[in-house]
Design brief:
Peptidase_M4/M1_CTD_sf, Immunoglobulin-like, 41% helix, EC 3.4.11.2, Neutral Protease, domain 2, nine-stranded mixed β-sheet, 32 strands, Peptidase_M1, metallopeptidase activity
C-alpha cells in the first residue's frame, strides 16, 4: 500500500538496462509461512546503458544474503531502498547470489508466489517476480532459467516449473526435489512454479515434424473428469498453429495447471500455463456452451503466446499490445477456423465486435482512454485493458484486411525471422508487415499512438445518366485526455453495393485498373475526406459499408428504416446483416427513450405495426439462417451499448425501454417464439459443437422472450426446462428466466440449484451472478447475498460473480436514484483495495464515466469517488483510476 504520490512512468523515458542477465539458477525451499529463495545469476554490463550501478527491484521481501563474485557485499557497496536494491559500480561481469524470504500464505494480492487451497502458485506478469527475489524485473531482460524446487513430499507431491524436467528425487526427512530447465531465454514475467497435491490428464501428441511431446492438464483431485475439453482445445491449438502459421511447439512437454484463486483468465508462462479454473474445468453438468467456447479460446490464446509473446516478447510494458493484441487476433481466428463455416465465422466476428462496442468504445470515450501503445502509466496492471487486447486485435486484423491472408502470413514469417528470441516494439511488427509486402504503412502507426474511436461519415450520390455512384468518406476522432487534435488514420473500409433484388453488384472503381469486378472492395481512407466513384452502376444501390467490421470505427450513415430492413433481409455480408438489425433496433430504442424522458406513454400497437417488428419476425422465421446467427440478430442492443449513443445517460429510461421492447416483441411474436423454441430443441447426448450450441442459443433466447409474458404457461415452460435439463446451458437459461419473472417457483428453483451445486465453485459463481443481474435485485439484496456462507471477497471469481455483476451488469438497480449503489461500490472498492489491489482497480473503473450521467446522479457518483480517494493507504492501482476519473 502507498500513501505517497506514485510515480508516473513515461514511454519517452525508456533507457536500456544497465546489465543483461544471461543465466538464472533458483532454489526454492517451499513453506507457506516463509519460503526461502536462493538465486544465482550471471550478468554482463550493457555498453548502451549510461548507468554504472546495478539496480534490482524487490517487493515484500526479506533480504538474507547478498554475494557478488563469491564475496559478501558490505553495507557500503549497496543500498536497500523502497522496492530497490542498488549495487554501486559493480564490475562488467558479475555473478550475483541473493537469498530472500517471502511469505506466500500472507500474499492475498495473488501476485508473486502465493498459496491457494494449500498449493503453491505464481503469477509474475506484469511485476510479480519482484515479490520472489530482487531482479531487474523488466521484459527486455531475457535469460535462461534452471530451477530447483524442494518441499515436503506428502504435502506437495507435485513440483512443476518452466521448460523440461531434468532431475527429481528424494532428499530425506520426508522431502523431495525436482529440477526444471527452460532451454529458451525468457523475461522474468514468464517465470512460473506450481507445487501441491494435484492430478493430471496427460497425452502424448505427435507434431507435424514427427516429434512426440507430452501434454498435461493438472487439476485438484476430484476435477479430472472436467479436463477433456481443455486437452482437446490444446491439441487443436497446436495443430492450428502448425497449419496456419507454420509454428511448432518448441518444448518436450506443455503443461496447463488450474487454480481457483487467480486475478486473470490465464497466464502464458513458458511451457507451464497457469489458468483460472473457469477456463479449464468443463463437463455438461457444470459448464455452459459459452464456458466451452471460452475454454477453447483461452487455451488457444495462451498456447499461441508461446510464439507471439514468449519467443518474441515486448521491449517494455508500453508495447503490451504487441503480444496481447496479436494473440487475441490469433485466438479469434483459431476459434473461427475451428467452426469452419462462413456463417460460423460471421457469428464469431459479431460476438467479438459486441465485446468491443460494449467495453472498449466506452473506454475510448472516458477518462482512462489511452492509445493501443500507451505513453504513460502509474500502475501497469491498470493497462491490461480492452484497448490493449480487443482494440489491439482489431489493429492487427486491419493488417490482414489490407494485405490479405497470404500477405499477413508473409509478414508474420518475416517478424519471426527477424526477432525470434528478442524483446521488440510494436513498430517492429508494423515494419515486418510493410517490408514483407512492399507497402508503406507509416500512417498506420497512428492506430498505435492515437487514442479514441474514429467516426466514419458516409455520404453517397448516384448519377443515373453517367451510371456512377460516388461514396464520400469523412473521418474524425474526438479529443481524449492528453490528445486534443488527431491526425487522419489509415482506415480500410470494406464496401458492397446491393441492387433492388438484394444481390451484390460488381464493383468497378473509376481510375483503377481491375482484372475482376468483386462483390466487396476494400477502400483505403488515408485523408480527412476522400471520394470514391464506382462506374457502370446501372441502378441506385443500397450501400453495405464496413463489411465484416473492417475497422474499429463508429459508422455514421443515413439509412432509412426501409433500407435497414432491406439490408437485414438481403445483405450477403452476415456481419452487416446483423448490423442493420441492430441499427434498426437502436433507432427505435433511442426514440422511445426520448419519449420516456418526456413522460410519454409507450404504445404496443405502434410497435406491432412497425418495421422493427416485421424485421424481427422475418429473421426469426428464416430457416435459411443459422440458429446461432438468428439468436444474435434477435438480441436487442444491451443497455450499455444504448447508453453510449446518448449525450446524457439515463439508465432508468433505457432499462424501461429495453424491457418494453422485449415484452412487446414477446407478445406480438409469441407464436413465432414458441415455434422456434420447439424447432431448436437438442434432445439426446449433450455436445458443445457449434451447430448444437447455436440451436440452444436460439431456443433459450426464445424462452427468455416467452417468459417476458410472465404468465402461468410461460412459467411452466421455464420450470419444465429447468427440471428436465441434461446440461448446464439449458439449466441456467431456465433459471435465469425464472429469476427475472414473478413465477411462484422462482425462490425454490434458486434454492434447489444451490443445494445441488454447492460443491462446484464455478457453478456457485453462476448462481451469484444471475441473481446479481436480475432486474429484481437491488443493493439490499446484494448485501444479503454477501452474507451467504459461500461468499468471500478474497476469491476474485467470487467477488466478480456478485459485486462486479451487480455494478456492471445491472445498471437500472446499480444507478438507484438514492445513490445507494454508489455507496455500496465505494465500500467494496475500499475493502478489496486492502486485499487485492488489482481486483479493486478493476471495480473502480465502474464509475470512471460519471460525467456522462444526469446531474443528480453525477453528484452522488462524485461523492462516492471522493470517498474512495480519501481512503488512507490507497494502492497505486486504485489511486490511478480514481485520480483520472475525478480529474479528466
Amino acid at each position: 500500500m502507498r500513501t505517497d504520490t506514485p510515480q508516473t512512468i513515461y514511454r519517452k523515458d525508456y533507457t536500456p538496462p544497465s546489465y543483461w542477465v544471461d543465466t538464472v539458477e533458483m532454489g526454492f525451499d517451499l513453506d507457506p509461512e516463509a519460503t526461502h529463495v536462493a538465486t544465482r545469476m550471471t550478468l554482463r554490463r550493457n555498453p548502451d546503458s549510461p548507468n554504472r550501478n546495478l539496480v534490482l527491484v524487490g517487493e515484500s521481501l526479506r533480504l538474507e544474503q547478498l554475494r557478488m563474485n563469491g564475496k559478501d557485499l558490505s553495507k557500503r557497496q549497496y543500498a536497500l531502498g523502497r522496492g530497490t536494491l542498488e549495487i554501486f559500480n559493480p564490475p562488467d561481469n558479475v555473478t550475483l547470489e541473493i537469498e530472500t524470504v517471502t511469505h506466500p500464505a500472507m500474499n492475498t494480492s495473488l501476485m508473486g508466489l502465493y498459496v491457494s487451497n494449500g498449493n503453491f502458485f505464481t503469477q509474475c506478469e506484469a511485476e510479480g517476480f519482484r515479490k520472489i527475489t530482487y531482479f531487474p524485473d523488466r521484459p527486455d531482460v531475457m535469460a535462461k532459467y534452471t530451477v530447483m524446487l524442494r518441499a515436503d513430499k506428502e504435502k506437495y507431491p507435485v513440483l512443476l516449473s518452466n521448460g523440461n524436467l531434468i532431475e527429481q528425487g528424494d532428499i530425506g526427512d520426508g522431502r523431495h526435489y525436482a529440477v526444471w530447465e527452460d532451454p529458451f531465454k525468457k523475461p522474468s514475467y514468464l517465470f512460473a512454479l506450481v507445487a501441491g497435491k494435484l492430478v493430471c490428464q496427460e497425452e502424448t501428441y505427435t507434431l507435424k515434424s514427427g516429434r512426440e511431446v507430452l501434454l498435461q492438464v493438472w487439476v485438484e483431485d476430484g476435477n479430472l473428469d472436467k479436463t477433456q475439453h481443455a486437452m482437446d482445445s490444446l491439441k487443436n491449438s497446436i495443430r492450428w498453429d502448425e497449419e496456419r502459421f507454420g509454428l511448432e511447439l518448441d518444448l518436450d512437454r506443455f503443461m496447463i495447471v488450474a487454480v481457483s484463486d487467480f486475478n486473470m483468465g490465464a497466464m502464458e508462462n513458458k511451457g507451464l500455463n497457469i489458468f483460472n479454473t473457469k477456463f479449464v474445468l468443463a463437463n455438461p453438468r457444470i459448464a455452459t456452451d459459452t464456458d466451452y467456447a471460452g475454454i477453447e479460446s483461452v487455451v488457444g490464446h495462451e498456447y499461441f503466446h508461446n510464439w507471439t509473446g514468449n519467443r518474441v516478447t515486448c521491449r517494455d510494458w508500453f508495447q503490451l499490445s504487441l503480444k496481447e493484441g496479436l494473440t487475441v487476433f490469433r485466438d479469434q481466428e483459431f476459434s473461427a477456423d475451428l467452426i469452419g463455416t462462413d456463417s460460423g465465422r460471421a457469428v464469431k466476428r459479431i460476438e467479438d465486435v459486441r465485446v468491443l462496442r460494449q467495453a472498449q468504445f466506452p473506454e475510448d470515450a472516458g477518462p482512462m482512454a489511452h492509445p493501443v501503445r500507451p505513453d504513460s502509466y502509474v500502475e501497469i496492471n491498470n493497462f491490461y485493458t480492452v484497448t490493449i487486447y480487443e482494440k489491439g486485435a482489431e489493429v492487427v486484423r486491419m493488417y490482414q484486411t489490407l494485405l490479405g491472408r497470404d500477405g499477413f502470413r508473409k509478414g508474420m514469417d518475416l517478424y519471426f525471422e527477424r526477432h525470434d528470441g528478442q524483446a521488440v516494439e510494436c513498430d517492429d511488427f508494423r515494419a515486418a508487415m510493410a517490408d514483407a509486402n512492399g507497402r508503406d504503412l507509416k500512417q498506420f502507426e497512428l492506430w498505435y499512438s492515437q487514442a479514441g474511436t474514429p467516426r466514419l461519415k458516409v455520404d453517397t450520390e448516384y448519377d443515373a445518366d453517367a451510371q456512377t455512384y460516388a461514396v464520400t468518406l469523412t473521418q474524425s476522432c474526438p479529443p481524449t485526455p492528453g490528445q486534443a487534435e488527431k491526425q487522419p488514420f489509415h482506415i480500410p473500409v470494406a464496401i458492397g453495393l446491393l441492387d433492388a433484388r438484394g444481390k451484390d453488384m460488381p464493383l468497378r472503381l473509376e481510375g483503377e485498373q481491375q482484372d475482376e469486378a468483386p462483390a466487396t472492395m476494400v477502400l483505403e481512407l488515408t485523408e480527412a475526406t476522400q471520394t470514391f466513384r464506382f462506374k457502370q452502376v446501372t441502378e441506385r444501390p443500397v450501400p453495405s459499408v464496413l463489411r465484416g467490421f473492417s475497422a474499429p470505427v463508429v459508422l455514421d450513415i443515413a439509412y432509412t428504416d426501409d433500407e435497414l430492413a432491406f439490408l437485414m433481409a438481403n445483405d450477403s455480408d452476415a456481419f452487416n446483416r446483423w448490423e442493420a438489425g441492430q441499427r434498426l433496433a437502436m433507432r427505435r430504442m433511442l426514440a422511445l427513450t426520448g419519449a420516456v424522458q418526456n413522460n410519454q406513454a409507450l404504445s404496443d400497437a405502434e410497435l406491432e405495426e412497425g418495421t422493427l417488428n416485421d424485421a424481427f419476425r422475418a429473421a426469426l422465421n428464416d430457416e435459411a439462417l443459422d440458429p446461432a446467427f438468428r439468436e444474435l440478430a434477435l438480441t436487442l442492443p444491451s443497455e450499455t451499448v444504448v447508453a453510449e449513443q446518448m449525450d446524457v445517460i439515463d439508465p432508468h429510461a433505457i432499462h424501461a425501454v429495453r424491457r418494453f421492447l422485449r415484452r412487446s416483441l414477446a407478445s406480438s411474436l409469441r407464436g413465432d417464439w414458441m415455434v422456434a423454441y420447439q424447432a431448436n430443441r437438442t434432445p439426446g447426448t449433450y455436445s458443445p459443437d457449434a451447430i448444437a450450441a447455436g440451436k440452444r442459443a436460439l431456443k433459450n433466447l426464445a424462452l427468455s422472450y416467452i417468459v417476458e409474458n410472465d404468465d402461468a404457461d410461460a412459467h411452466h415452460l421455464a420450470q419444465t426446462q429447468y427440471d428436465n435439463a441434461n446440461n448446464m446451458t439449458d439449466r441456467i437459461a431456465a433459471l435465469t428466466a425464472l429469476a427475472n419473472s414473478s413465477a411462484p417457483g422462482r425462490a425454490d428453483a434458486l434454492n434447489s440449484f444451490y443445494e445441488e451445486f454447492e460443491q462446484e465453485a464455478l457453478v456457485v459463481d453462476k448462481w451469484f451472478a444471475l441473481q446479481a443481474m436480475s432486474r429484481t435485485t437491488d443493493v439490499a439484496a446484494v448485501r444479503a447475498l454477501m452474507k451467504h456462507p459461500a461468499f468471500t471477497l478474497k476469491n476474485p471469481n467470487r467477488a466478480r460473480s456478485l459485486i462486479f455483476s451487480f455494478c456492471n451488469g445491472n445498471p437500472s438497480q446499480f444507478h438507484a436514484v438514492d445513490g445507494s449503489g454508489y455507496q455500496f461500490w465505494a465500500e467494496q472498492v475500499i475493502a478489496l483495495n486492502a486485499i487485492n489491489p488489482q481486483v479493486a482497480a478493476r471495480l473502480a473503473r465502474t464509475l470512471d464515466r460519471w460525467r456522462k450521467y444526469a446531474p443528480a446522479l453525477q453528484e452522488k457518483m462524485h461523492a462516492a469517488l471522493k470517498k474512495v480517494a480519501a481512503t488512507k493507504e490507497l494502492s497505486k492501482d486504485v489511486l490511478e483510476v480514481i485520480t483520472k476519473s475525478i480529474s479528466n
